[in-house]
Amino acid sequence: MGKGLDDGEALSDFEEDEFEAAPVELVPPTIVNPSAADNLKSVLAELEKERQARKAAEAANAEADSQIKRLKTYVHETIRQRDEAVKSREEALQSKDEITRHRDEILLQKDESLSTEGRDCPSTGRLEGRDCGSGPDISNAGGQDNGLGKRMEEVVEEVVRQREEAAKRRDEIRSQMEQRNFSIAIEVSQLEASITQLKVEVSEKALELERAQKQASETEQMLREQLEQTKREAEDSKTRVEEAGNQLLRVNNSVSQSCRACSQFERQPFRYFADEA
């Protein structure tokens, strides 16, 4: 009996000491910090805002350029109309001078003709087949000349009056054009100031966008490195788990073999020691 107890104690010691399964330590997988992903999302949102602001600034700049082009076209058209008005006035004054000169020439010719007829009459006693004593012919000729001169004066006065009215209207139009040009100059200066400010804002936004892109690139590089490190750690963890599984399998196989040996020993203990001997 004592021998059987010693064998049982030895068997229990053998099972507890040599075939006790070693604890398997599994390396927990590395958890990716969500702050990096949140930082990337915020950077991307900021980039989108900067892109929208840049588009709005470019649209405002294009609209301002279009307005300046329209204003320049209007100014050029106004200057052209002013030049045409000045040219028309000069032509009117020139026409007035020509009409006045022509009238003076006609009156001078009539005066010379009457003077010549008056000088020829006493010496010859006849004037172009008529007697010099026929006073009604001379008086009628003088009346016709006076009527023609008055008519010419009326025509000249009417032309001068029309030209003066045209010049007055032209001066009024010129005054309005000058006022409009002054207001256009003010608007153009304001638009140029706005364009300058927009260009400054666009340049600032471009610098901010460049900084944000650089920051996003750095963040992306950092996340890529973290992902690669996480992949390496995951591969290492997977390798360790496989090694631990293999070790556990070997331990289980050893335990199974020990259990079979123990079962055989319990069934035939004396035969086991005899075989050992």
TL;DR of this structure?
Helix content is 90%, strand content 1%.
Keywords:
277 residues; mainly alpha; Helix Hairpins; two-stranded antiparallel ribbon; 4 helices; 2 strands; 90% helix; disordered N terminus
Strand fraction band?
under 5%
Q: Would you identify the regions where 5 or more consecutive residues have pLDDT less than 50?
A: 1-32, 123-138
Query: Can you give the mean pLDDT?
Result: 72
- Count of domain modules: 1
Report the CATH C-level class. Mainly Alpha
CATH topology: Helix Hairpins
What order do the helices and strands follow?
A: HHEEHH
Helix/sheet category: mainly alpha
Biggest sheet architecture: 2 strands, antiparallel
Keywords: Coiled coil
Coiled coil: 37-67
Biased composition (Basic and acidic residues): 81-120, 221-241
Region (Disordered): 1-25, 81-150, 213-241
Please provide a written account of the structure.
This protein is mostly helical and 277 residues long. It has one domain: Helix Hairpins (Orthogonal Bundle), CATH 1.10.287. The protein has 4 helices and 2 strands; from the N terminus they run H-H-E-E-H-H. Strands 1-2 form a two-stranded antiparallel ribbon. The radius of gyration is 61 Å and the shape is rod-shaped. The model is unreliable at 1-32 and 123-138 (pLDDT under 50). Residues 81-120, 221-241 have a biased composition (Basic and acidic residues). Keywords: Coiled coil. Residues 7-20 have a biased composition (Acidic residues). Residues 1-25, 81-150, 213-241 are annotated as: Disordered. Residues 37-67 form a coiled coil.
